[in-house]
Predict the structure.
Amino acid sequence: MSNGAILGMCNPLLDISAEVPTELLKKYDVSLNNAILAEEKHVPLYEELVNDYPVQYIAGGATQNSIRVAQWMLQIPGSTYYFGAIGADKYGEILETCAIEDGVQVIYQKNPSVPTGTCAVLINGGERSLVANLAAANTFSSAHLKIPEAESAIAKASIFYISGFFLTVSVDAILELGRHAVTENKIFCMNLSAPFLIQFFGDQMAATTPYTDFVFGNESEAAAYGAAKGYGTDLAEIALKLAAQPKASGTRPRVVVFTQGSDRTIVASMGKVTEYPVDPLPTELLVDTNGAGDAFVGGFLAMLLLNKSLDECVRAGHFAARTIIQRSGCTFPKECSFV
């Protein structure tokens, strides 16, 4: 039986996903295996996608993906909660319905004056590029943490997970949950999420990192972090140095987890690095990599909630990611076959 629940907080976005040619990537100046916030030049992209390509609408947002996957892996009702801001519109209804159908207890802050956020997911050769238009997600305020339903969820949660994308929205809310986790001896986790956050939101990241018990990232984020901090280019070394940074809570050592797609996953803690090989997936089975990192975190956190070993957490993460990349978007079968 699980111990408490996992609470995620971040930007709920409706993914508008399509297979696109390289020309479209060039037209909007976006690169594969990257995530950015939409600028003025990206505004026409969303309409062009919907008008010119067969699109799929999928409930997204990095943390919401992870929480949906964790709930699927656990198969225990009431194991997950999610906070974020949406608009009072059709896209918001789709997001809410999808999360509820997946068993996640969503406690959204609803803003009737701003549309629900969207994310263009551009798939090319199995790789993905994300362009997020936060819209309503950007209006989340820490006041939402004070409503009774949110306070109840925070009290029940034993693990908190927030992606780095939320650093652009509400550092106050992140710090509030971080302080709660320290006071109540709960587990607090974050994700580096994208190179641009490390490059342009370094101060916000530095303010929240002391609260982290677990930090996740992929190889490009790890490399960007190493460059920003002067930690060199060796990912294992970068992981060790991040793990050794000062912590607000001395009750448990920080664990840093770097995924590298089909290459080995690096786990660093207490001056030691362990590498976990990833079972290769035949190329013909790969549909798209969108949500692979989110799914890894979801699988990992599910086992963490069940007090499993780090080895088991990584195995579950690999299982979840492998499942998701064989499907379109961050979706999964009804039953979970992980044993």
